[in-house]
Design goal:
The complex is a heterodimer. Chain A folds into 5 domains: 123 residues; 92 residues, Calcium-transporting ATPase, cytoplasmic transduction domain A (Distorted Sandwich), CATH 2.70.150.10; 141 residues; 131 residues, Rossmann fold; 113 residues, Calcium-transporting ATPase, cytoplasmic domain N, CATH 3.40.1110.10. Helix content of chain A is 52%, strand content 18%. Chain A is built from 21 helices and 22 strands. In chain A, a hairpin with a 2-residue loop joins strand 16 and strand 17. Chain A starts with a helix and ends in a 9-residue tail after the last helix. By secondary structure, chain B is an alpha+beta fold. Chain B has one domain: Alpha-Beta Plaits. Chain B is built from 2 helices and 4 strands. Chain B is globular and about 35 Å long. Classes of the chains: A alpha+beta, B alpha+beta. The interface between A and B is medium-sized, with 24 and 18 residues.
Amino acid sequence: MNAKQKKMLIRIIVTAILLIVFNFLPLQGVYRFLAYVIPYWIIGNDIIKKAINGIKNLRPFDESLLMAVATSSAIALALYQQAHGQAGDYTEAVAVMLFYQVGELFQNIAVGKSRKNITKLMDIRPDYANIEKDGKNEKVNPEQVEIGSIIIVAPGERVPLDGIIEEGNSSLNIAALTGESVPKSVKAGDEIISGSINLRGLLKIKTTKNFESSTVSKILELVENASSRKSKSESFISRFAKIYTPVVVISAFVLAVFPPLFRIIFTSSPALWSEWIYRALTFLVISCPCALVISIPLSFFAGIGGASHAGILIKGSNYLETLSKVKTIVFDKTGTLTEGVFKVNAVHHNKINEEQIIEYTALAESASTHPIALSLKNAYKKEIDRTRISNIQELSGYGVIAKIDDLQIIAGSEKLMEKYGIEPIKCRSCGTIIHVAINGEYAGHIVISDVIKKNSAEALHRLKKLDIKNTIMLTGDMEKSAQKTAESLGIDRYYSELLPDDKVRKVEELIDGKNIVAFVGDGINDAPVISRADIGIAMGGIGTDAAIEAADIVLMDDDPLKISTAIKISKKCLKIVRQNIIFAIGIKLVCLVLGAVGIANMWLAVFADVGVMIICILNSLRTLFTGGKD
Amino acid sequence: MKKSYKIEVDCANCANLMEEAARKTQGIQNVCVNFMMQKMEVEFCENADEKNVMKEVLKNCKKVEEDCEIFL
C-alpha cells in the first residue's frame, strides 16, 4: 500500500468507528444531523470536491458527482423526514459513501498489484551494462553504450545489448524472451541477444547494436504499447458507459418525479415524495459503470502479459480479440511446419559426376540467402570462389541463371527448364527438385528435402481441438512433397508450386469478410502475406526485424505448438471479458429493477456496485495464468 | 518529436480524462496515455518548447483530475 492508500484506509476505519459509536449515542434533533456530517465529511470530502470540479469542467455524469448527489440528497431527505417527526436515517448516506470508498480503495490496490505483477512478468529491461575501463568494471546505463564497445556479463546478469561473444562460454536462460526453459549454450563467436540471462561463465561481448535497436528494447516497446490499441470490446464498453450513465440518471429523475405526480393527479392518494426520491437515489448509486470500465482493459492487459511470458508477443488487444475468432489458419510450409533446414539428399540422372553438379549449382546459387541455396553451399563444403561467377540472374520462385567458368548454368524448377526449351526428367522422390542444365543441355537434378518439425503434427491436432475449422498449407514446393507433408500432418487442404504473389492471392481469396483468416509464416520471405491476413503470425521472431514489423503476433521461438497456446489464451481472455460484461450488466439491471419497485435499498445498491467490481477484477486476473503450461 | 513520460494516475477513466486534457494543450500534436503502463506518450508540434508545453499539460491535467502526476 502506498501513502495515498494508507491515508484512505485510515479515513475508512475512522468513519466506520464513528458510525458505530453514533449508533449507540442518544443524539437528538440538530445535534444528530451535525454529528453525522462529521464522518460524512471525513469519508466523502474528496468525492464532493471532485464532483464540484466535474461541474466546473462540464462533466455532468461524472461518477463522483453521482455519488455526491445521491448521498447528500439522502442526508437532506433524512433531515426532512426528521423535521416531520419521522426517524431520519443518516447512517445510510454515510455508509454508502463508506462502501463506495472501500470499493475504490480495493480497486486501486487490486489494479496496482495486478499491474505490477503483469509488468514484472514482462520486465526484461536490463538496468546496467558493465564496461571495462582501466582494468576495472564500471556500471553504466545501457543507453550510453556505443556500438562496438566491449561489455562484460557476469553469471546471473542479464545481457543488456545485442552483440557477438568475444570471449567465454556459457549457457543462457532465454525463457523471458521465448518461453523456452531449456538453456541455450553459447561460445565465442556466437551472436547473443539482449534480455537473456547468463547462467554460468563470464562473457565478454562486443556490441553490435545500441540499446534502442537491441532486441530487448524492441520487445518491450511492442508489449508496452500493445494495450493502447483498443479492442472492439473495449470500445464497446466505453461507448456503453457513455450512454448507460445518462440513461440511468434520466430514469432516476423520471422515477423521482412522475410516479408521485401520477399519484396526486390520477389516484388522489398521498404523493410519497420521499419514498420515490429515495428510490431514484438508489438508481444513482447503481449507475456507476466502473466494474466494466476497469475490468475489461485489465483482462486484455493480463492476456497480453501472460502471453508475453509464454514467448508470444501480441501487438494489441484488438489482435487478441480477432485471434479468438479465427476459424481458418493458413500455414507457410518451409520454416513454419518444417525445420526449414534443407539437405541435399540425392543427385539423379546426372550426365557429369555428382560433385561437379553440386559445385556448379552451389556457385550459381551463391548470391541467394534462401535455405535451399544454403543447403547447396553446405553440400559443396568448399569455399565459394566468387571470381568464377558472373551474370547472376535470379528469377524469384523459379531459380537462377549464371555464368560459371564460361558455362551457362540454369538451375531451378521444371517450369524454368521448360521456359528455356529444355526437357527435364521428372523425379519421383519427394522434396524440392533442382533441375540443372549446362549450356542449354539437361545435366540432371538435385533432390533437396526438408524435415518436418517434431511438434507440427501435435500442433495441428491441438488446433483442431480448439475449433479451428480449416487448416491450409501454402508452399512453393512441388506437388508431391507438399502432398506428403500435408498428409502426414493432417492438414485439410494444400496449395503447391506457388510463387510469393500467389500466396498473397490465395490468402486474399480466403478472406471473405466473415471468415477470419490467420497466416503463420517464418517472416523471412512472406512478410506481404503476413500483413495481408486478418491476423499475421510470425515465427521465430528473435532477430528478424521484418517479422516483428509485419506481424500482428510474434512467436519468439519457432515451436508451432505456440500457435495453439496463443489461441487458447485469446479464447480464455475473451471468455472472461464476456463473462464480466454479462455479469456486471446483468447484476446492475437486476438491481435497477429491484430499486425501481422499492425492494433494493441503497445498501444493496452499493454492495452490488462494489461487489460486482471486485468479482470482475478478480475474474480478469485469471487471464494471466493461461500461458506457459499446456 | 515524440517523448514518453512516467505518470501516476489511479483510475482508467481518469487516465482517459488526462489524455483528453493533454491533447487540447497548445503545442501538442498527439497524446496517448497508457494507464496500465502508467506512461504518457507525447508527440509535440514542430518548434514547440517541450518544457513549457509539458508544464501546461500538467496544469490542464490537474484541472480535470486533481491527484494525477506527470514526472517531468
